[in-house]
Amino acid sequence: xxxxSLAPIGLSVFLGxxxxxxxxxxxxxxxxxxxxxxxxFNLVILPTEPFLKPTRKVIPPIGxxxxxxxxxxxxxxxxxEVLLGQQGxxxxxxx
Length: 95
Known about the structure:
The protein is mainly alpha-helical. The protein has one domain. The protein is built from four helices and no strands. α1 (3-28) packs across α2 (42-58). It is elongated. 8% of the residues are buried.
């Protein structure tokens, strides 16, 4: 296994972790009493908030429901599929 073949694995893990963090963030929106500056919630809020803050300016909460984490799950899933899916750009270039 060469370093070139490990790069897609690392990218896949990174994008998968992003999806996981945004899914946890979706669950956290169901509990508004959660203190975001306390451990372990800050481990999820700190890395996701830089993405969610500008998204909320473009798409504000609808009926009090913040849909920005859902949008980011979709974006990251799409990027992951386009790059690393069965017929993804990186996958096809390696094999």
